[in-house]
Amino acid sequence: MDDKRIAAEEAVKYVKNGMTVGLGSGSTVDFMLHALGKRVQEGLQIQGIPSSKKTEKLAKELGIPLVDFSVTTHIDLAIDGADEIDPSLNLIKGGGGSLVREKVVDACADELIIIADSSKVVSTLGRFPLPVEVLTFGFEVTAEYIKKLGGDPVLRRKDGEVFISDNRNYILDCSFGHIDDAARLHETLVKLVGVVDTGIFADMADKVIVANKGEIELFQKKQE
Ligand SMILES: O=C[C@H](O)[C@H](O)[C@H](O)COP(=O)(O)O
After folding, report:
1. Is 102 a catalytic residue?
2. Catalytic residue among 9, 84, 102, 133
3. Whether pLDDT at 223 is above 80
4. N vs C: which end of the chain shows fewer Cβ within 10 Å?
């Protein structure tokens, strides 16, 4: 079986009756939604808060009850994917362009579980170009600033068209090479004019479930 699916199905075991569940985005999360939808059909009572229009659509198709932040701002558990995961459980996310809404959903969850196959585990973040969501207005200016920081920004395109996020913004994919201090890079980037947010999720994941050739590995945040 696909390792993404194996990690996703393992994470769904953590969902309990009555929970409000943050629903991440991406292909690994899609497997999670199918497993969660099955449990809902079997009687599990939960409500989900989706982190993208794509996730919202699939969750609805699978019969997962949804709410939004006008109903509650408390999330018991969020389950999300990642593009890179380092040994301190810092993440790069946003390969699918959903980083801003994912960060809002993941940040207000009591617990964040990340699901991935083993290809996402790295010793240092940065092989995957860092997605940075920026305003369309003056994005060239923002790109210049990112260039001065050594980021080599590339405006994301999909199917030949400039990619537009769910928030009607652009994504700049920025290759910084190895990122030694992810939290610091994020702090620097979010201060630039036009930057909405970055795909660095530093110190947010509580658990990471990785499937490697069918075997589950569980990484947990170190307690301070
Ligand atoms: O914007 C997309 C998200 O951050 C995804 O969670 C991430 O790109 C991982 O996606 P996938 O599970 O498809 O590899």
Report:
1. yes
2. 102
3. no
4. C
For the chain, what are the domain ranges?
Answer: 3-120+202-220, 130-199
Parallel, antiparallel or unpaired: strands 157-158 and 153-155:
unpaired
> Which pLDDT score is estimated for 105?
98
Q: Specify whether domain 130-199 bears CATH 3.30.360.10.
A: no
Architecture of domain 3-120+202-220: 3-Layer(aba) Sandwich (3.40)
CA distances from 131 to 4, 82, 92, 106, 151 (A): 21, 12, 8, 17, 11
Residue 212: its H or E element = strand 207-212
> 2, 55, 79, 83: which to mutate for ligand 1, most atoms within 8 A of CB?
83
Amino acid letter at 15?
A: V
pLDDT at 99 over 80: yes
Closest ligand 1 atom number to CA of residue 115: 12
- Per-residue pLDDT tens over the stretch 67-87: 999 999 999 999 999 999 999
Mutate to test the pocket of ligand 1, among 93, 105, 118 (most ligand atoms within 8 A of CB): 93
Nearest ligand 1 atom to the CA of 97 is: 1
DSSP state, 204?
A: -
**pLDDT at residue 224, rounded to an integer:** 67
